[in-house]
Each structure stands twice: as structure tokens, then as C-alpha cells.
Amino acid sequence: MIKPLLFVYGSLRRGAGAHGRLRPVAYCLGRASVAGCLYDLGPYPAARPARRPGERVHGELYRLTRPAALAALDRYEACDRADPQAGQYRRESVPVQWRGGRAQAWVYWYNRPLRGARRLPRGHWWRP
């Protein structure tokens, strides 16, 4: 069975506040990026698919080791798989660039309005 890949860019990254949720169910393959725009919501970031060529969100790529990991992460991200537009985030499979080349991985895109959110033009976010 192929274990899925997950791209993370915020609180699930190494050293960030929620990384403990990911650590027991995945291992890090390294730094990676996806085509997208990143916004600072304060305690966590929001990513949206790219609107223009060259827009990138930077983070880390993980290989999930447990089948139930995605369901638990969906709950953490307030992702409603039955109605993807209803959740705070929606999970989609996207192309990822990393040191190993290109891969297809899950990412959580933000579903809510971005009123007052500051765009991060370099695509990096960090809060321990």
C-alpha cells in the first residue's frame, strides 16, 4: 500500500505548536513548496491556490505512516470531506516540488474569507 504524502505550511511544521499531532503518524521528507498564496491570520496561516505564475507557498513534505492519520488531521483542520466547501479548510491533492523532484500530495487550502489577513508575498509563515 502506498502511503500518502502531505504538504504542511503552518502549525503542523516541525517546531510549530501543533507538530505533535503529525509527528507520531508521519515522517518528514524535507522542505517543499506548492503553487499558492499565503496569508497570515495571526495564530495560523491560510493558503489559497496560486492566482499568478510564480506564487509559491513554502513548507514541508511528509509521508503519512498510519491510514487513520488523514481523518484525524481533517478534524484538526476543520475539513468536511462530505461537503468540502463547508469546512474551514478543504483538502486537495496538488503537485509539490521538493528536493526529490515532483510529487503529488495533500494540502489544506483555506475556505473562509480573508478579511484583514496580511498576504505573505514570499510564501513563508512561522509561529512556534
Task: Please tell me about this protein's structure.
There is one protein chain. The protein is mainly beta and 128 residues long. The chain contains 2 helices and 7 strands. Helices cover 9% and strands 44% of the residues. The longest helix has 8 residues. The protein is globular. It starts with a strand and ends in an 8-residue tail after the last strand. The model has no long low-confidence stretch (mean pLDDT 93).
Give the secondary structure arrangement, pairings included.
Elements: E1 5-8, H1 19-22, E2 26-40, E3 45-49, E4 56-64, H2 69-76, E5 89-98, E6 101-110, E7 118-120
Antiparallel strand pairs: 1-4, 2-3, 2-4, 2-5, 2-7, 5-6
What's the gist of this structure?
The protein has helices at about 20, 70-75, and strands spanning about 5-10, 25-40, 45-50, 55-65, 90-100, 100-110, 120.
